[in-house]
Amino acid sequence: MAKGLNWIFNEYEFDNRVNNLAWTVSGKYDEEIDSAEKDYSSKDASMYYAIIAGARRKYVDWETVKKFLVNRIKSGYNKDILLTIIQIVLNDVAEKKVIEERPGVVDIRNKAYSDILKSYSKIHKEDILQLLKYTYVLQQMDRHPVMDRLVRKILREINSIDSNDDIMNILKRVDEIYLTYFQHILDSQSENVEFAEDDVKNVEVNFDTFSDFMLEELYNDQETQTVETEIKNLNSGMLVDSIGEERGDIDLESTPNRVIYVDEEMLNKIYKRVEYYYGQSYLNESDRRKIEARNCRNVHEGCRLHFTDGVLRSHCENAFQLKYVTRQKDNNIFEFQFKIKTFRRQINKLKESFSRLLIEESSSDRVYSDCGTIYANKAWRIGRSSNNKVFYKDVDNGKGRYVIDILLDSSGSQTSKQFMVAIQAYILSAALTLVGIPNRVMGFQSFLDYTILKRFRDYNDNVRKCEDIFEYYCAGNNRDGLAIKATCDGLLERDEENKILIVLSDGKPNDVKIGKDTSRSIRGETAYKGVVGINDTAMEVRKARKRGIMVLGVFTGKETDLEAEKKIYGKDFIYIKDIQRFSDIVSTYLKKVIRN
Q: Which of 307, 370, 398, 567 has the CA that lies 20 to 30 A from 224?
């Protein structure tokens, strides 16, 4: 089986510890720790990744670094060389500063690098940039690798940088290293670069405190976007990434199709432990299997569904998870209490708006005709007038009753805005409940091949149950198509005439696939991401609409992913740049649906 999976499966709460470690180091609990900033080859590697992720956030002024990179790349600096120098220098700065505060990091770092380096069968030492990173790592581990004079000189320059210095002075040293050791070689040999130590000459760098790049406005052009992407890559990558060729026993995150092969024994352990991590299911085994049989087909073949009320409202023996979710709930409630008057006004405003609309739409009109119920006051017309409309009919304008499902993406990509999502979902659900519209709020996320559907409130719960929405927290992946399919399964059982499903997501379905046999992959397992995930989710949305469910997609991702969202939801989707407008925008949509 894939390397390192044993401890992941048996101690899944370790992932929460990794997140907490990064947040503790950085002191920024509202920032998302991306899955790419974690390593699954060993516990020490994961802990070190988390420490450095937190240290980068705490000690590096990335906005200034971005301006520096945009300016230098626009002026002709070689991007790959400059980024490599920046990565080594800023890693060195972050590492030195965090070790000053936490000396124990040294042991974790050495074990982590040792574990990661074992996964490489060949190091490309002929590439000066990769050799620099590789030699730097060995040097940090107190090893003494043989290195040529050029590498030794560059590393000596990097080691001499004061980690406590101002970011401007640190960037000045980066400029000096680039211009001293690389620029003139690039000028003389263009793109075909060979580094010869004899060509290196010291240079003078004209770089004052108020450098020109700090005065430059950053526009949303291609170069700026490229630099932002590269900075994200720097943040989420380690120095030893891409320095050679990996061995065959690749791990969870580096698997090309994110297909993990496990044996039957390990598979059974996963299934037995899911309630330990997410709380006991509110369905019995028989009902759950029936739902899986209907929904886990085609691209979802072999997947499982777990319906739960969460660890706080169902049986759970996982003390760490109980503590973790309690803390997340407290954080969400704290943010709500901070502006409670504003949020209460929003709820009352939506409630009154929905009430007026429902009263208007449920009224009846009286129509006079030549048949129906006789209208006594007009009976005199009979035999005396050509107008024989002395009967009436009351025409009901009501369009039937409504039921609404609110489905929230609870994957790790939503972490940075989880308290805002929880508050907005609470506001909308509370307003709907107060006017008597049945609504259910659920979150979805994935744990290996399980799609977890967490029920925060059910259709007929009272308004106090809306507070359970504050248990919303984010982790793991997202298998949108299966979550939508399973949610619609329950929605269709309701007897209300008008069924509405609102899905909040970032428009990027992304999940792993579990292969049940390492020796025979005859089914050709494919990960649930990219075109596969988008097409499947789009298909499930269209199926739901054909069955009479009105589906609205609420998009919270990046503009670059808008095309995927359009493909999934067609015209019925809303792009929200500010998640705090979620309840207002969705209520506008609901009013439009009711009127039409």
A: 567
Q: What is the largest CA-CA distance in the chain?
A: 120
Range with the largest mean pLDDT of 371-375, 420-424, 528-532: 420-424
Domains of the chain: 61-242 (no CATH), 267-348+400-595 (3.40.50.410), 364-397 (no CATH)
Q: Does the pLDDT of residue 206 top 70, yes or no?
A: no
Q: If we measure between CA atoms, which residue out of 464, 465, 459, 510 comes closest to residue 483? A: 510
Confidence of residue 395 (pLDDT cuts 50, 70, 90): low
Q: How far apart are CA 512 and CA 531, in angstroms?
A: 14
Q: Is the pLDDT of residue 289 over 80?
A: yes
Residue 361: its pLDDT value, please?
62
Helix 79-101 and helix 128-140: axis angle, to 10°?
10
310: left (phi over 0), alpha (psi -120 to 50) or beta: left
169: tokens are 């002075």
Inter-residue contact 210 to 240 (CB < 8 Å): no
Q: If you average pLDDT over residues 327-349, what whole number do you get?
A: 91
- Quick check: 443 pLDDT over 90? yes
Between residues 267 and 105, the one the model is more confident about: 105
Specify the 3-state DSSP secondary structure of 244.
strand
Distance CA 20, CA 100 (A): 20
E strand or H helix at 116, and its extent? helix 105-117
Whole-number Cα distances in Å, 568 to 39, 93, 106, 395: 31, 44, 47, 39
**pLDDT reported for residue 467:** 95
Q: Can you tell me the distance from the alpha carbon of 550 to that of 501, in angstroms, rounded to the nearest whole number?
A: 6
Is the Cβ–Cβ distance between 184 and 199 less than 8 Å? yes
**pLDDT computed for residue 255 by the predictor:** 39
| Alpha helices for 201-297 (secondary structure H) | 212-215, 222-236, 264-278, 285-295
Among 145-159, 194-208, 392-406, the range with the most confident prediction by mean pLDDT is: 145-159
DSSP 118-183: TTEEEE-TTSHHHHHHHHHHHHHTT------HHHHHHHHHHHTS-TTS-HHHHHHHHHHHHIIIII
